[in-house]
């Protein structure tokens, strides 16, 4: 079943094309969009999350056109932007609870989901600690708790592992994989291609607004060559 | 008497109310109600955590010291207290909305909200509701002081309503300016001086009848002017140059114009 369908997508920012006619499809799976800085990853997620308007092309999520039926699309997605930070004086419990309410959960549902997900993500000792006093890893866990509890069918995560320690990252990946098994689609962006190769079921490599590669991670090196990324990083 | 006994006594007496409240809270309300409550409750918690009530109290006392101590003496106290309903509502609406929008832009909170079932009108309604506790805090001290003066209690609901309208107008004014400001993370640097200037220019702390004739048409073009006049009429003992119909017309005009500006200028996503 096709969850996300992107066809011939163009987007320009400040007079320059950031996305140059890209097309791809995503099923119920964990997809990593990888690419160096400025390759168009964040712009692509901005369009998928209905924050940015494409210049041309077609974007559908679960069969609904993003431009024509944004309200229906927004009910099914949850987005974690790059570098997002919640109000630091809120506690994890307050943040997740108010986030869920703002998505239309009732008091009872929001309270129950908040408790369950904070426990699930190992935040039981920090429920009443202000977010400002949490480590970056724990802070990310709070945002993950909110987004996983949202019951959205498509999760869009922009560079979710930046500033996160290895243990938390492994835990986050395992939670995401569990969600995929439950029928949730996860699209995330990463700079590190080898990380994308390890965790995703499918990788889309963006470079300068074009798709260089899309397919299973095992075929990545066959197509791009083992030194592509190193050369690219050195050039950047 | 033990706590348990008190509980049962209250239950015996007010069980109908208890059943009604229980039904109301256990019943699932429309999703949009929860979404509005979600935005509002986050902002109320933040207002309290930032110790904003202390700042509001300090601002009121400082203003009173300035007006009574340096400007007009105790004779101005009555005018100041009446004006503080309007000025308080306007300042609170304009500056709080600027701060909230600014924060939401800078941290990505707005993007998170856009990519959710929350609509722009629900977001604004949530912010407006979140400002009501702050408004109540803003006016409790002037209210307490005003009750000691020769103002009838029946004028209090009018003053409160006018403070609420002032809050809405302040909020709409900031929202109408916001789309023209870039970068959005510095919104309050532009909007706060503009809205404060409008307030300073408007005859709120002194009556319109005291202003020179040639200036009046200009002053009538400011949204806070009819509110100031209405507040003085509501408090009693003042003959305004504006009739109640003029005031209703001017306020309706400003609310309509600013609402139209906000709805046509603001984008919710798809930037």
Mean of the pLDDT scores of chain B? 88
Strand content bin of chain A? 25-35%
Structural class by sheet pairing and helices of chain B: mainly alpha
Helix content of chain A: 25-40%
**Strand order within the widest sheet of chain A?**
6-7-8-3-9-10
Strand content of chain B: under 5%
Give the number of helices of chain A: 9
Question: What's the end-to-end separation of chain B, in Å?
Answer: 63 Å
- Please report the distance between the alpha carbons of the first and last residues of chain A: 37 Å
- The tally of strands of chain A reads 10
Q: If you compute it from the alpha carbons, what radius of gyration of chain A comes out, rounded to the nearest whole angstrom?
A: 18 Å
Secondary-structure-based class of chain A equals: alpha/beta
Sequence stretches where pLDDT stays below 50 over 5 or more residues of chain A: none
* Radius of gyration based on Cα positions of chain B: 21 Å
Globular, elongated, flat, extended or rod-shaped: what is the shape of chain B? Answer: globular
Considering DSSP H and I runs of 4 or more, what fraction of the residues of chain B is helical? over 70%
Helices of chain B, by number, come to: 11
Q: What is the H/E string of chain A?
A: EEEHEEHEHHHEHEHEEHH
User: Biggest sheet of chain A, open or closed, and with what strands and sense?
Assistant: 6 strands, mixed
Question: How would you describe the shape of chain A?
Answer: globular
